[in-house]
Specification:
The complex is a heterodimer of chains A (217) and B (347). Chain A is an all-alpha fold. Chain A is built from nine helices and no strands. Chain A has a single domain (3-110, 128-214), classed as MetI-like (MetI-like fold), CATH 1.10.3720.10. In chain A, helix 1 packs parallel to helix 5, helix 1 packs antiparallel against helix 7 and helix 8 runs antiparallel to helix 9 (186-214). With 347 residues, chain B is an alpha/beta fold. Chain B has two domains: 2-232, 3-Layer(aba) Sandwich (Rossmann fold); 247-344, Alpha-Beta Plaits. Chain B has a six-stranded mixed beta sheet, sandwiched between helices. In chain B, strands 2-1-4-5 form a four-stranded antiparallel beta sheet, with helices on one face. The chains are: A mainly alpha (217), B alpha/beta (347). Chain A binds chain B through residues 116, 118-119, 121-129, 132, 136-137, 140-141, 143, 214, 216-217, and chain B through 52, 54, 75, 77-82, 84-86, 88, 90, 92, 94-97, 105-106, 108-110, 137-140, 153, 157, 163. The site of magnesium ion has 3 residues of chain B, from helix 1. Chain B: Residues 2-241 form the ABC transporter domain.
Amino acid sequence: MSSAMLDLILKATLDTLYMVGVSSLISALLGVPLGVMLYVTRPRQILAQPALNRVLGVVTNIGRSVPFIILMVAIIPFTRMIVGTSIGTNAAIVPLTIAAIPFVARLVEGALNEISPGLIEAAQSMGATPLQIITKVLLPEALGGIITGLTITVVTLVSYSAMAGAVGGGGLGDLGIRYGYNRFDPTVMLITVAILVVMVQGFQSLGDHLVRRTDHK
Amino acid sequence: MITLSNVSKTYGQGHAAVEALKPLDLHVPEGTIYGVIGLSGAGKSTLIRCVNLLERPTSGSISVDGQELTTLSGDALNQARHRIGMIFQHFNLLASRTVFANVSLPLELMGVPRAEIRQRVAPLLELVGLSDKANQYPAQLSGGQKQRVAIARALASKPKVLLCDEATSALDPQTTGSILALLQEINRSLGLTILLITHEMEVVKRICHRVGLISAGSLVEEAEVGDFFTAPRTQLGREFITEFLKLEPPRALVERLDADPGDHSHPVVRLAFSGDAVSTPLISRLARDCQIDVSILQAKVESIQDRTLGLMIAELIGPSDKTREAIDYLETHDLHVEVLGHVQRDA
Ligand SMILES: Nc1ncnc2c1ncn2[C@@H]1O[C@H](COP(=O)(O)OP(=O)(O)OP(=O)(O)O)[C@@H](O)[C@H]1O
Ligand SMILES: [Mg+2]
């Protein structure tokens, strides 16, 4: 294999890591608060806002139900507005992030669901404010579940990013399609797939390791 | 220290409404351990949760340490809650925090500086006997140890009042004993007022000064613990005590019991006696004065705080006019007599 090819593979790998990294980070920053909101605004919860809760729930479900490939196309104008272009890795980050936010939010909400209501009650009996309950009880107690959710998100983003790559987003998916499919070079295809597999394994192991460290059972 | 006036609580509305507490008054004097006992679903948890407004009462007012709580909300309520500790049946410790950090939590919530928190937590861990477990996580502790951590945590904000919601119900009898001893020690050494709810008479007997009996949302009986055990005023109270003392006639006898007296049968009675009656040789006097024979089937004596309580199941053997006379005799000597039935005289 030529060194030019190796360079291409290396660049594609870094592009994928960049897309996945940035979209994971932003979707975590926005998705975790949204997940917390979905949980605490429920009826009878610490910041009960049933109407707001329903609106957030519907919006989140819409975000989750649109297939990624359609979302990517549908939000092209929005992507252009944000990054100035609709192709390339930066352009791919926008739909990846939009798709991941509701995904993260639901996983976080699920993790919070696992917390015994007794803990919230105990905190209330100590005179904790809702914000204190979120920062000192809910988030630390659900940390393991939240990390599990973020790991699932990152892994999902790896495969989504390959899809985004196929329609001009760059990265390993793009490389695999261009060389492996269009030019019929099975070696490149296999290498990109192998790198994706290793990447997913790596993220999963890292996630599992972090979850174990938060687990005090 | 704690005064509930006319407090009621209804869950839900319309057809689904459940009146968990009917309007009731309750007063817990400063420094006492007050036990509320009742059957499952009687409204005990609702009652105790109303005291710190975890549950907002539908009506009535609640005052703790002279402060009216029902008018408070938000920060003012949170401030008031710093002076009311609470422990729970299932401990409710944070699994993500060490023992030390769990006890620190209420102080963090109050904004106490780190250095001061360290100074205040250490003696609390010592008080509950867990100094060596400071850096362990709850999952590494036994149930009794978890409840000790919860007690230390509840005391961290130096409350005037401790609420205990079935605090020993998830523990084995021996551990229960040690937790009750700890609560008693705290009551004595810190002068803490304790309101506890339980369905176990053992808890009431061991540490409570006063007891309230709650049934279907009403406080049906209230007394000093010694009085309650020796002279309950309600049927439910008597059932609790009988159940607690486990003094039931033997099954073989129950099968032979007849509700109505026959020509050749004699009564089986359950006698409850307390105070002076315990030390008076009543049974031998009864046999002599009424000229009957007394066959004791079962007997039990319990000491409850400074009182002694005796229970006995006995067969009164003699002609029916004599046995009736014997029952009158016992009643005039302040024994509580319950005729369980009649058995045929053996041939
Ligand atoms: N959140 C709630 N919503 C509706 N009904 C409730 C609620 N909490 C309690 N109840 C009802 O109120 C009544 C009293 O319940 P409570 O939990 O106070 O009883 P308890 O004496 O503590 O019983 P247990 O010994 O089983 O804990 C019960 O009929 C119960 O079903
Ligand atoms: Mg209860």
